[in-house]
Design brief:
TIM Barrel; three-stranded parallel beta sheet; globular; binds 5'-deoxyadenosine
């Protein structure tokens, strides 16, 4: 690692901020030595805020019907090879019951942008979950909606909303999405969510086609200034039935490096070791934790839904990835000195 990179890392640790050109330099200056240095600082920053706790969220993939045509995503509208499904409210509530018994205190309802799933239906579902599980947090991850719809979901009791910004570079955003989706609307959604009072999550893929150290630097600056409660990052993984089907997957070491940088930018950030990371490396979860992550989101969806929610090829949904195998996850976390807790896992004040 060069002296310059060491200086940038020290300054990031102290001031939690770099300029966009400096972030780009840090990203481009990746080396194993720099990654180890960042991971060490990130782990310590995480443990000062969260101790040894690993927060878990039960992920329920409520449907894969989607009106959008994102170029990277396996459940895009034009993929005729995708077997579509939609869970009923009863099925979703049974997933929550099963999850509650296993120790989950956050349920994440994630799905494609399905126009036939009305805002009122989402609100009714949130109310039903909160009525039965008053001590649990409900996170929604259902894409873009008008301001009033987000407000209604919040008023129904939803606590958190995840909407990855995907990239903070306008031209890059447009190259990953169909013309119907706009960078400005994505940013409008994120601002609305935060203003309404949701614990808001943004995030991006690492290694998406067209990504550069420059665009990543903008992502880092965006997180620094937006100050989300959560940030989900994972490597891009190609899906064969998409326009990016022949593009290379993102790099695991770069993903880990970015997790560490994000932890230093915002020590109280909720940072998941994502399914995509676990898909590319059998010990991806552990490596994510060792780089500064503090959240895992095991899958609570019914088995046949898991098969169909294929955002990318090879997506994991069994083993430690499955909510039903929490004991395996506990053991794996214990092996790296971490403790899976039964808790809502809200962000610590920062
Ligand atoms: N590889 C990795 N992540 C993907 N996502 C969608 N498609 C892919 C892919 N091919 C991510 C997007 C989206 C989240 C739900 O999954 O970032 O926001």
């Amino acid at each position: 690692m060069t002296e310059r990179i060491r200086q940038l890392i020290d300054r990031l640790e102290q001031s939690r901020s770099l300029t966009v050109p400096e972030y780009a330099e840090l990203v481009a200056g990746y080396s194993e030595e720099a990654a180890a240095c960042l991971a060490d600082k990130a782990r310590r920053a995480c443990s000062r805020v969260y101790g040894d706790a690993v927060f878990i969220r039960g992920l329920i993939e409520i449907g894969n019907v989607c009106r959008n045509d994102c170029l990277y995503c396996g459940i895009r509208h034009s993929n005729r090879n995708c077997a579509r499904y939609r869970l009923s409210a009863d099925q979703i509530l049974s997933c929550c019951r099963e999850g509650y018994a296993l120790g989950f205190r956050t349920f994440v309802l994630q799905g494609g942008e399905d126009p036939s799933f009305s805002v009122e239906a989402v609100c009714a579902l949130v109310r039903a979950i909160k009525a039965e599980f008053a001590d649990c947090a409900v996170t929604l991850s259902l894409g873009e909606y008008p301001t009033a719809a987000y407000q209604a979901m919040f008023d129904a009791g939803a606590d958190r909303y995840l909407l990855r910004h995907e990239t903070a570079d306008r031209a890059h955003y447009q190259s990953l999405h169909p013309p119907a989706l706009s960078f400005d609307n994505r940013m409008r959604c994120l601002r609305d969510l935060k203003a309404i009072g949701f614990q808001t999550g943004c995030g991006f893929m690492v290694g998406s086609p067209g990504q550069t150290a420059q665009t990543l630097a903008k992502d880092l600056k965006f997180v620094e200034t937006f100050r989300p409660a959560m940030c989900g990052i994972g490597p891009f993984i190609p899906h064969k039935d998409t326009p990016f089907g022949d593009q290379p997957a993102g790099s695991v070491p770069l993903t880990l490096y970015l997790l560490s940088i994000l932890r230093l930018i915002q020590p109280n950030l909720l940072l998941p070791a994502t399914t995509a990371l676990g898909t590319l490396r059998s010990d991806g979860r552990e490596q994510g934790m060792l780089a500064g992550a503090n959240v895992v989101m095991p899958n609570l969806s019914p088995p046949d839904a898991r098969e169909k929610y294929t955002l990318y090829n090879g997506k994991l949904h069994s083993g430690a990835e499955s909510a039903q195998h929490l004991e395996e996850l506990r053991q794996r976390m214990a092996a790296i000195g971490r403790r899976v807790v039964t808790d809502r896992g809200d962000a610590a004040p920062g």
